[in-house]
């Protein structure tokens, strides 16, 4: 027992000292080292770039011989992350866990999962289907969710240097095309002039919001419906 607690305390201290990884770790309650929150930036070159993502971490009495229980608190649109519960489909959190892994290395693997989706082994089948069959709509929805749910708080440090390896970044480039530019926290650029297409999209969103539906949910459903208002309305009503 004492040896396990010393190991956990060392892992927490090592993670908090490691500024290069940009992984943040803090206890949920002072004195309880078995329950933590971890935070990390979305990897560059992905739809999650510019966001800060929080996960919930619970260690069992059998750690490190059993993996930690980790789920996303931040809503993420990703084939291997439940859009409802935040549950994660990742082999090292299941059968590929090894006691040599640490909290820090596990969080880096979770962060890297954002670079390398596995749609053929999904946690969220609907998101995986869109990833495979309508990738442009997947990218648009994933970016939109990042903007809505993973907006950095004041004082957050985004990725000045990437905690993802060069090979992973190259893989991300092949997985995610036409990604947006990094968010820069310094001088804000002027507001862009909206295209007629974007104005029409906003009009469609507003028309459904006026019927009593929540705006973020409306936009997600419209993207899934390829911006067909009638199809989106049927979807909204059937799931109301």
TrEMBL record:
Family label: Belongs to the ubiquitin-conjugating enzyme family.
Q: From what superkingdom does this record's organism come? A: Eukaryota
Span of domain UBC core: 3-151
Origin organism lineage = Eukaryota, Fungi, Fungi incertae sedis, Mucoromycota, Mortierellomycotina
**EC class:** transferase
Compositional bias (Low complexity) spans?
182-196
Which residues are the active-site ones?
89 (glycyl thioester intermediate)
Locate the UBA domain: which residues? 198-239
- Give the E.C. number(s): 2.3.2.23
According to its UniProt entry, the protein's GO biological process terms are: ERAD pathway; ubiquitin-dependent protein catabolic process; vesicle organization
Q: From the Swiss-Prot or TrEMBL record, give the protein name.
A: Ubiquitin-conjugating enzyme E2 1
Under PANTHER family, the record lists: UBIQUITIN-CONJUGATING ENZYME E2
């Amino acid at each position: 027992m004492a040896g396990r607690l010393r190991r956990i305390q060392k892992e927490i201290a090592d993670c908090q000292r490691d500024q290069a990884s940009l992984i943040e770790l803090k206890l949920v309650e002072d004195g309880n080292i078995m329950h933590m929150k971890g935070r990390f930036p979305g990897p560059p070159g992905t739809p999650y770039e510019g966001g800060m993502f929080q996960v919930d971490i619970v260690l069992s009495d059998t750690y490190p011989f059993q993996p930690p229980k980790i789920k996303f608190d931040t809503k993420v649109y990703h084939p291997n992350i439940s859009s409802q519960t935040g549950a994660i489909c990742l082999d090292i959190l299941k059968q590929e866990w090894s006691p040599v892994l640490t909290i820090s290395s596990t969080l880096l693997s979770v962060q890297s999962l954002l670079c390398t989706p596995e749609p053929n082994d999904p946690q969220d089948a609907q998101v995986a289907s869109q990833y495979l069959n309508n990738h442009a709509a997947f990218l648009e929805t994933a970016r939109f969710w990042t903007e809505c749910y993973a907006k950095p708080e004041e004082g957050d440090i985004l990725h000045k240097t990437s905690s993802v390896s060069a090979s992973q970044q190259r893989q991300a480039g092949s997985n995610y095309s036409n990604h947006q530019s990094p968010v820069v926290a310094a001088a804000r650029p002027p507001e862009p002039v909206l295209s007629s297409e974007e104005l029409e999209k906003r009009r469609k969103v507003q028309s459904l919001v006026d019927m009593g539906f929540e705006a973020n949910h409306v936009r997600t459903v419209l993207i899934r419906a390829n911006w067909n208002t009638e199809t989106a309305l049927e979807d909204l009503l059937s799931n109301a």
